[in-house]
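Format notes (please read before filing issues)

Several people have asked whether sequences and structure tokens are stored in separate files. They are not. Every record keeps both together, in the order shown below: the sequence lines, then the token lines. Line labels are part of the format and must not be stripped during preprocessing.
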Amino acid sequence: MHMQRYSSAAMKMMNFHRNFLALQTPTNPSVLTNKKACDVFINHRGIDTKRTIASLLYDHLSRLDLQPFLDNKNMKPGDKLFDNIDNAIKNCKVGVAVFSPNYCKSYFCLHELALFMESKKKIIPIFCDIKPSQLVIVDDGNVPAKDLERFKFALEEAKYTVGLTFNSLKGNLSDVVTKTSETVVESLIEMESKKQ
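Then the structure lines:
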């Protein structure tokens, strides 16, 4: 008889899924009242990472029976951007920020990051083809001063958060998606155990 061995991380993930799925049954009133809640929000710059790491991470987390939020997967024509995105961030449990070369040029990316930091949500950074020191906001006069300060503060917080790095010329997408997913699951397990 062949006995299959699992790593402790894999065992934790399987146990988490069993317990998490038990909470997702229709008999659980919190699931029925909060249909818009998601487990993990994926913050990313579409032109850099939507077709690669962001979509692969979304699919991987979905296969783990988690509820990820990715704008092009969860929103439909006619949805209000700020309303839906702000609500998803406020109701999610953890965030993944995929930093990339064009990230800081996006008002939306910076707005989402600032919301995460202001709501004290745990965020898992992925530095994709960029070093934390290269993340800089250029003041071109198009962003109100109040928002600019929020964005700079959030970016500084993110720079000093331990994250994952990925070099698209040398790295393996599967490895970074798997490692990120494991980190998300471990974070959710940790949050769940703190509640109990």
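For reference, the curators noted about this record: DSSP finds eight helices and five strands in the chain. Residues 125 and 161 are 7 Å apart (CA to CA).
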